[in-house]
Amino acid sequence: MEDEIRTVLSEELGDLATFGAEIPERYRRDWLSEQAVTPIAVIRPRTTEDVSRALRLCSRLGISVVPQGGMTGLVGGAQPVAGGVALSLDRMTAIEEIDEVMATVTVEAGATLGDVQRACEQAGLFLAVDLGARDSCQVGGVISTNAGGNRVIRYGMTRENVLGIEAVLSDGTIVTSLNKLLKNNAGYDLKQLLIGSEGTLGVVTRAVLRLHAQPQSFCSAFCGCADFAGVIGLLKAARSTLGAALTSFEVMWPSFYDFMCDGLPELRRSLAGRHGVYVLIEASGPAGQARQSLEDLLAAEIDAGHIADAVLPKSERETTELWAVRESVSEYGRLMGPLTGFDIGIPTGEAGAFVAEIEAALARHWPDVHALSYGHIGDSNLHLVVNVPSAGAHQPHDALCDLVFEAVSRYGGTISAEHGIGTIKRDYLHLTRSPSELEVMARLKRALDPRGILNPGKVLAPPHSATSQAVSPTVSPSATPPSGPA
Amino acid sequence: MEDEIRTVLSEELGDLATFGAEIPERYRRDWLSEQAVTPIAVIRPRTTEDVSRALRLCSRLGISVVPQGGMTGLVGGAQPVAGGVALSLDRMTAIEEIDEVMATVTVEAGATLGDVQRACEQAGLFLAVDLGARDSCQVGGVISTNAGGNRVIRYGMTRENVLGIEAVLSDGTIVTSLNKLLKNNAGYDLKQLLIGSEGTLGVVTRAVLRLHAQPQSFCSAFCGCADFAGVIGLLKAARSTLGAALTSFEVMWPSFYDFMCDGLPELRRSLAGRHGVYVLIEASGPAGQARQSLEDLLAAEIDAGHIADAVLPKSERETTELWAVRESVSEYGRLMGPLTGFDIGIPTGEAGAFVAEIEAALARHWPDVHALSYGHIGDSNLHLVVNVPSAGAHQPHDALCDLVFEAVSRYGGTISAEHGIGTIKRDYLHLTRSPSELEVMARLKRALDPRGILNPGKVLAPPHSATSQAVSPTVSPSATPPSGPA
């Protein structure tokens, strides 16, 4: 059977398809998967028409297709499935057009985010979507996962930065909606379905991204608050004083801040004393103005009692030092064994209570646990990274997920704020989405991919969950992508 | 048959349903429809469960359901259909919760936009979605049409301001996704399908809207440019100098500006000479800062040759005078006979060429034509209002649409930037959406409304377009909603 399929693929797709042992390692696993899976073939189209031809063929053959971008996803979404093919967009890397008046860039899906950012910068424009894996991740994957990243509080998720999409459906239909207009209410906005559906409804082949003016200057401040109530007071004041100039509001609990500062000698504590919670704020604006706004904010917030101590860096070097702690997440490998990372959303006002509860619960179950809490709290996004040293290579991954996701559900949060569902969180999706929501998702999946060949088993369980297509990758929390969990 | 349906509706829905001559006029037509249509019944639910019960029943009976909000739509989307029922949300007006930390408001769909805006303002927060019909239009309608309005350049369309939705599908299934989190990537984002689908895929019953900090102060400036190249130069500079502080960039061609100033004695020309194009800019920011930024911008742009003359108002009264011309669109009734209004999107850089071409073409066909061009050009949204005096009550509506939409299609624009499709633009939708896009829309419609009972004939032609459910309202371009075309 597989031999027959190979013959057909080879005859119809020629050099677009590579088979068996010839398939390079990078198409066999994504960052978080322990075990490589060898698909029947990897197909690497050069054009949208190639993608269409490949999907039409796979649809006819009834074999599953896993779309692949830069393989930097954290939930197993691009992990190939045995008996199916992988469809990599990595040959479609063109940056087709930068329209300076519309402030848009039109790209092929396989272009890396970093390449697109740099091209826009050269044209004097700014692509606001940004994440640690910028030089590996591809625009198609960024769109399919509705990636979040560093600037959501100001510029929104990827969704808010996509104006147009071209995609190919599972039957090979090419749907081209390369809209550049900020306002277009002519019929259903089909791109919204493709964004964030993790390659289960269609394969994004091209996109129009919205650009902004280059921010003129940035200024950061670092604050120590006695407790989370102070953080909330500071957040409200920062929103109202800075408005759209507020570009980051990052919170670090001592569980994270002290652990990283104690463990990594190159990090420097920017405040003299110890505090209940730490906040890193960034503002942008015309030169001078951002710094002045931050100074005014800090003065008022110390008076209001929300901040115990604060520092405004006096040099580029001091700014880098402030951010170095927050960005030290890429050093987990040096400090901890295998870890389980959570990327959850918690209603902002409850994040303090949630962290206190979950850190205590984890310590009750696993007395030697390291549980590090930090995140984009301005966006309600909490990262929690857990390692149980005594468990060694056998981290209690499932038990940790059960405990954390139960609490997330109880707090009205989400099990994934930005990384997505993939296979890794699929069996927990019912904790944050209702049966009727799941049923509508399944209806949409059937409408756009009636044979169920597109990225089967990702996000939603396949209708017949015992098929070989539903094999989920074995997950190893030990591997971390180049940037670490954001 | 209708009698039997009445009996069943009356028995099962009790006082939620009103029949025949008892149905008040306001449920029989929306703003732009000449002819009232009396549906079998108007159903006015008090709760989401009522909506579910009504839809389940109509689905069983196979009768069509037209969701209704404030009836201020401009494309016939809420016009009842003969033989069906109207479902008005006007009893579900609760403003359920304002969450100051999350910066969200949770409302029922029948609340008017104005009531929600005022409630948020009292809580010290800001609902950015705003349009002229604010005190009549309802949140459900605003969401279903993805309304644009006055502040899109800074805060986005309605879509960008909706975090959660509760909706009822045609079979009565209640889908509750009242998410408050800015970041939530747990499965498909179902609300995106409901937003802007004009009540054809589900009935929105509740929503969570995103709020912002109150803008601190506003400052406007009015500029005369020699030509459209100057306008584009000014737009680029305004984006880069003001960034997120740029809240409006409104353009008025002489066809609009001179016609209104000459016709309405209460309007004052703020600049001494006549210019090729006029631009009204608004900036927001901390007090003093917005005005300073605008002053700097104008000085630089006069030097750059993009602006011929400009004025910064020195008082509240002068600011009101500047905006009075732009807002005089509500006075069309005093100046013109019946009109045909267009709400189109044109790639920004091409808007000047488009206006020149279309005004000339209209004058060639109808030598006495009034064709007024103006719009939210910062958002690529052009309004064009046409009256042919010699045609009297029989305006060449179809011929005007043919001529304008052909040009829109040729320029790569959209036939609707913000008002939507409804019935009025349905037969032109193929000019801006491809056959494969239309086919996918039809697939989604079948998936969520397999019996085709929800708002039939709106946006998409019904599968069997000869049924009585597909009757489009007779359109009279003479009626204008309270606010006029935005």
TrEMBL record, chains A, B:
InterPro entries: FAD-bd_oxidored_4_C (IPR004113), FAD-bd_PCMH (IPR016166), FAD-bd_PCMH-like_sf (IPR036318), FAD-bd_PCMH_sub2 (IPR016169), FAD-linked_Oxase-like_C (IPR016164), FAD-oxidored/transferase_4 (IPR051264), Oxid_FAD_bind_N (IPR006094), Vanillyl_alc_oxidase_C-sub2 (IPR016171). Gene3D superfamilies: 3.30.465.10, 3.30.70.2190, 3.30.70.2740, Vanillyl-alcohol Oxidase, Chain A, domain 4. The keyword Oxidoreductase applies. Keywords: FAD, Flavoprotein, Oxidoreductase. Residues 455-486 are annotated as: Disordered. Residues 35-214 form the FAD-binding PCMH-type domain. GO terms for molecular function: FAD binding; oxidoreductase activity. The keyword Kinase does not apply. One of its GO terms (biological process) is respiratory electron transport chain. Its cofactor is FAD. Belongs to the FAD-binding oxidoreductase/transferase type 4 family. This is FAD-binding oxidoreductase.
